[in-house]
Amino acid sequence: MKISTPLKLAVTRSSWTTACFVMVYVLTGLSAAQDDATKKCLDCICYASTKCIANAPCDGYCGPFQISEAYWIDAGRPGGTPGYAQCAINRSCAEDTIISYMNKFGTDCDGDAQVTCDDYARMHKAGRGGCSAPWVLDTPYWTQYTQCMQGGSSG
């Protein structure tokens, strides 16, 4: 009888260890899937904005994502010094700006009770206050974004 208790404990530890490995595997897989989804979302927003032209002219909006200075400030000034324009033309810093902005202000723009890349794309085009406006769906930006998300070109 005394042997069964340690044996039972060993099985419990083994099961617990297995469960931990399974959880790590699942969470790592989910994280990778989320990273892929985030990359696809950013690539399609970039493509819709400028076809990811890195040296797109700065005229109130800069860089491949056409980020405004107010958007960059709202996002918390990613990249710090030297500042807005340098961040907006740097793909990595611009992506950090968008992620920070969406994490801070992400909202359900299309009324489907979920916050998805479509909502982020709408916010990126029309701002957080105008993202539910129907005009967004009638722009070349939206056409290019949806084509990209359906497997077309991306940055």
From TrEMBL:
Residues 1-32 form the signal peptide. GO terms for molecular function: lysozyme activity. Its EC number is 3.2.1.17. One of its GO terms (biological process) is killing of cells of another organism. It comes from the Eukaryota. InterPro entries: Invert_lysozyme, Lysozyme-like_dom_sf. Disulfide bonds join 41-117, 46-52, 87-93. The keyword Hydrolase applies. Keywords: Antibiotic, Antimicrobial, Bacteriolytic enzyme, Disulfide bond, Glycosidase, Hydrolase, Signal. SUPFAM superfamilies: Lysozyme-like. Pfam families: Destabilase. It catalyses: Hydrolysis of (1->4)-beta-linkages between N-acetylmuramic acid and N-acetyl-D-glucosamine residues in a peptidoglycan and between N-acetyl-D-glucosamine residues in chitodextrins. This is lysozyme. The lineage of its organism: Eukaryota, Metazoa, Ecdysozoa, Arthropoda, Chelicerata.
